Amino acid sequence: MEEGKIDALCQEQEVFQQKSKHEAMLERLSNLHQSRLQQSASRKSGLEDSSPAFESTQSFLARFAEMKHSIEASLKQCREASDPDSKSSLKSHLERISLAIEDLQKLVAENSYFLPSYEVRSSLKAISDLKESLEVVNSEFLPRKKFSFRNKVQKKEITQDKDVELDPTQTPELLSFASAVIPIHDSPGFRNKENVVLEKDFRAAGGGDFTLSDLNACEIRLRGCLRALYVHRLKNCRVYVGPVFGSVLIEGVEDCLFMLASHQIRIHHANNTNFYLRVRSRPIIEDSSGVRFAPYNLIYDGVEKDLKDSGLEEETGSWANVDDFKWLRASQSPNWSVLPEEERVCTVKLN
């Protein structure tokens, strides 16, 4: 009898121990699950805190529509003004509209990495329409001066680290290339030079926005990282640039060679020009012809580090996938082609 009681007690104790182990296991699993939930929430919160303001298509489109509506309203005001105050005030008003269009274009460039391709294409088409509308208003009220390069050839000289600083209180001058009104960006840069070598080194302290405009028969060498590059009206130039971690906007170039690495590159009014690119997204051309593309092959001391710091260390092959916004057919655009290997320049090294 005593032996039976002892066996019963042992069985009860064994059941109790198994139950305790089971409850302990459930508690550990519950604690682990809660820990994982907390870590996930923490990671999500961190991502939200570091996300850029427009990292959603809906918020971007709302901001784009607001800016576009403001520009259209300003253009309508110009068209309906039966008695403009004065020629100078109208010119100033058109310049402000041009700058607003440029800001809209920058908004698309800076947010294109997360936008659907359709939205990028639609936004850029809207910007192109705004530019054309601005040109119509400009041609109706103001005489248009066409830009031309001088034929005079001067002795080639090297200009190093002598970029032109503009007065930030002045508004950019509106000039025309072909039929497009091009705003001159007011960042530091090289301007109005002919037959010279222009050099600048950003490796020590990185660069911000930089502008190249009205250059003829020049060679430009920019080492180090830039935030953004703006190019206006270059002819017979060779341009070698380190990585740009923002965007490159090119307007009005002819018979040039460009070596560029950037997250986004937009080319407008380019003729008979070769582009050697490393780019994260598809290059965009518009109103261009005879442009050819090849991979980036520029080297200088520290270029690999600059490419890595700019997020451009990987060759994506996007340089060969060009979007022509003026060619809407399914067939290959006749305005651009891949540069044959036998016609490409060798690797360029900047000393």
Total of DSSP H or I helical runs spanning 4+ residues: 5
Radius of gyration over C-alpha positions, nearest whole angstrom: 29 Å
Biggest beta-sheet profile? 13 strands, parallel
Order of helices and strands: HHHHEEEEEEEEEEEEEEHEEE
Number of strands: 17
Low-confidence stretches: 42-54, 144-156, 161-182
Q: What structural class is derived from the secondary structure elements?
A: alpha/beta
Residue-averaged pLDDT, rounded? Answer: 77
Terminal Cα span: 101 Å
Strand content: 25-35%
- Large-scale geometry: globular
DSSP helix fraction: 25-40%
Protein name: C-CAP/cofactor C-like domain-containing protein
Subcellular location: Cytoplasm
Domain C-CAP/cofactor C-like: 168-327
GO cellular component, one term: cytoplasm
Descriptive account of the structure:
- Helix content is 37%, strand content 28%.
- It is built from five helices and 17 strands.
- Strands 1, 4, 5, 6, 7, 8, 9, 10, 11, 12, 13, 15 and 16 form a 13-stranded parallel sheet that branches.
- Helix 2 (57-80) packs parallel to helix 4.
Highlighted features:
351 residues; alpha/beta; globular; 13-stranded parallel sheet; two-stranded antiparallel sheet; 5 helices; 17 strands
In short:
With 351 residues, the protein is an alpha/beta fold. It contains five helices and 17 strands. The longest helix is centred in the N-terminal third of the chain and has 49 residues, at 2-50.
Ordered list of secondary-structure elements with their pairings:
Layout: H1 2-50, H2 57-80, H3 87-111, H4 117-141, E1 158-160, E2 174-177, E3 180-183, E4 189-194, E5 197-201, E6 209-216, E7 219-223, E8 228-235, E9 238-254, E10 257-271, E11 274-279, E12 284-286, E13 291-295, E14 298-299, H5 303-309, E15 323-324, E16 336-338, E17 348-349
Parallel strand pairs: 1-5, 4-6, 5-7, 6-8, 7-9, 8-9, 9-10, 10-11, 10-12, 11-13, 12-15, 13-16, 14-17
Antiparallel strand pairs: 2-3
Helix pairs in contact: 2-3, 2-4, 3-4
